[in-house]
Structures are given as C-alpha cells and as structure tokens.
Amino acid sequence: MNSRFRAYIRKNQRYAPVLFFICGFIWDTLTLGRIDRTYDRVILCTYLTSLTLCLYLYNLKDDDKWKGTFFERYEEYLPLAIQFFLGGLCSAYVIYFSRSVSFTKTMSFFVILVVLLFANELLKKRISNKYLQFSAYFFVNFTFFTFFIPVLIKQMNTLIFLISGAISLTITLTLIVFIYNSSPSTRREIKKRKMVAIIAGIYLMINSFYFLRLIPPVPLALDTGLVAYSVERMNGDYEVTYESEKWYKFWRNNNPRFIHTEGSRVYVFTSIFAPTDLQKSVAHRWRWKNPSTGKWQEADRIGYRITGGRDGGYRGFTHKSNLMEGKWRVEVVTEEGLVIGIVSFDVEFGKRDELELVTETL
Questions:
Q1: I need a labelling partner for 120 at 20 to 30 A (CA). Which of 189, 247, 291, 322 fits?
Q2: pLDDT tens digit string along 285-336?
C-alpha cells in the first residue's frame, strides 16, 4: 500500500501539491465551525504542532539525520505535509477572519491571508528556501495566538495581543535556533542577521497593522447588522421591523434605505458573536457623510458590554432621532477602536405608505 502511494506521488509530483492544498481547504471548510469549539481548537493546535515538527524533520534531512531511522522512508512526503498543514492553518484563518472583516481598511489584512493561502500552492517549488519556510511559519504562528489566547483566557485587549505576539516570536526563534544549531546544512544556507531581520520585520508589520486598526478583531464577528424602523424586546427575544429587500438582491434581506419622518427614530440592530464567557465593551459609532467635504463625521458613539457564548451572537441595538438626509453608517467597534463590522444605510425624507415592512424575531 505504501509503495503504491509512493509511486503515485512520484508520478504526479506536478499535481500533488495542488491536491493537498485543495484537500486542506475543503477539510477545514467542512469541519471548522465555532472558533471557541473544542474540536476547532484541537484541530488548529494539531496543525501548528505538526507543522513545527515537519519543519524540524525536513530541515535536518539534508544532514542525513534520519538515515536508518523510521523517518527516512517518509522524508519525501515532508514537503507535502508542510504544505497541507500550512494550507490548513491559512484556510482556517480565512474562514474565521472572513466573518469579522469589514470591507474597509481591515480588508487589507484579510487580503494578505488570502494571498498566503493561494501562494502556498507554489511553496512546493520554493520549499528549500529556509527564509520562506520560517517567514510563513512565523506569520501563521502569530496569527494563531492572536485569537487562540483570547478564546482561552476569555479576555481581549491590547496587552493580550502583545503577549500573543511575544509568545509566537519566542516559539519561532526557538525553533530556528534549535534547527540552526542541529543542522550544518542550515548554517550554510542562512545568515542569522538576515533571518532575524525578516522575522523582526514581520513582527513589526503585524503590530503596525494592529495599532493602525487594520486587523479584524477576531474572535469577535458581526453576525447580523440591520437598520430598522423599530426594535422591541419581547420575552427574551427582539422583534425587529425593517424594510425587506427586492427578491433579486438575494445576498441581503434588509433594504439599506431608511425613510425618515419627523420625530421618528432610526434603529440599528446588531448581533455580535463572541466566544463563551468572553466579555467585551463595544460601541455603535454613528457617522454621517458630509456632502460638502466628502468626509465621514462622527455624530454619536453609544457603548454597551457584550458577553459571548450565544450561537446567534450577543444582541443589542442603538437608536437616534432627527438624522440628516444622506449617507450614514454605524461602525461596530471595540473599545480599542477595532472595527467588528459596519452597517451602512441611506436616510431619505418621505412617506412610508408603500414600504414593504417585515417583522422578524431575532
């Protein structure tokens, strides 16, 4: 069985990396669900641990460290294993981050994840480049700890982010030093200063993304965001009345237009997913686009505290009266200013006689 598989891999070396890449992505899409679920955490920990082990085994194989051992017969599979686990981590991040990313400035970090996910398909050709190996490893390692530790300790703030970065940096440098000291071929191939400079550059880049508020605040995610005509609390649920969208705009059910009348209120209802028992202060930041300047002006900021654990997300709403006509958006943000999601809508003055309003229990 093993010999047939080995022969198949050798015969299809050109297509095997793509196959492993696709398998890793499909497997994650079908199996991963909640970021705080035990299964998900075990899978991601297994991926990262296995990737670490495979990098160690692969980088020592050129020194004949595994000659005559159990690992010798599997040496040629190590590049595929590295690609599978790296692809599995990247695809998991894309799945999780796609729930949190808002299509504004936080999109840039999401794009990096997507690029890394598809660039992994080419890693087979470049796997011998140790700078690339360790750079990709540090990036996925850092990204893993930025959401794994908040899920684990039920807290999320700037200090936790810095601690996460320090842990991932320590693990990566420890792995590199261990391989460097154990492998003469690695010492010949890489320069310590260059390797440290690359890792430091990635570290500074991710930290810059965080402090410039370019990273989506995973594990928080905006599940629902609606502009509504009324929101009422009924027996533990919320009765939300909003204008339904046209049938052919199937990607959303809420019309982003709001017909405003004198004295009426504009409601914005949101549900925010957070891991079980994680508590966090968030806010609805109301902004109006000034047509004369073309810039968004903050009109109000209304905060509240959420508690994680509910499948449909923690529900809440804010409202305002006497809004100006034009483009509005409500940014759902953390206390650090990271954008969880955005609810955009247009305010128009007029009559509501012909509106198709629906009431949904959320």
A1: 189
A2: 999 999 999 999 999 999 999 988 887 789 999 999 888 999 999 999 999 8
Asked if the model's pLDDT at residue 160 lies above 70, the reply is yes
The C-alpha atoms of residue 330 and residue 102 are separated, in whole angstroms, by 12
- Strands 265-273 and 314-321 turn out to be antiparallel
28 falls within a domain: yes
Residue 296 DSSP class = E
The domain of 350 spans 221-361
Q: Specify whether 30 is located in the same domain as 156.
A: yes
pTM: 0.81
Q: Please return the burial class of 289, using the count of CB atoms within 10 Å of its CB with bins 0-12, 13-18 and 19+.
A: middle
For the chain, the distance separating the N- and C-terminal CA atoms, rounded to the nearest angstrom, is: 53
Q: Which of 192, 211, 230 is the last residue of a domain?
A: 211
Which whole number is the average pLDDT over 4-33? 63
**Structural domain includes residue 216:** no
CA distance 239 to 158: 36
Q: What is the CA radius of gyration of the chain?
A: 25
356 and 227 in a common domain:
yes
Q: If DSSP codes are grouped into helix, strand and coil, which group holds residue 300?
A: strand
Residue 113 has a pLDDT of: 67
CA–CA separation, 305 and 283 (whole Å): 8
Whether 45 and 177 map to the same domain: the answer is yes
Query: How many domains in the chain?
Result: 2
Q: Are residues 59 and 200 in the same domain?
A: yes
Count of H-run helices and E-run strands, the chain? 10, 11
DSSP string, 94-144: HHHHHHH--SSTTHHHHHHHHHHHHHGGGHHHHTT-HHHHHHHHHHHHHHH
- Residue 227 sits in the same domain as residue 206: no
Whether 202 and 231 share a structural domain: no
The more confident residue out of 72 and 107 is 72
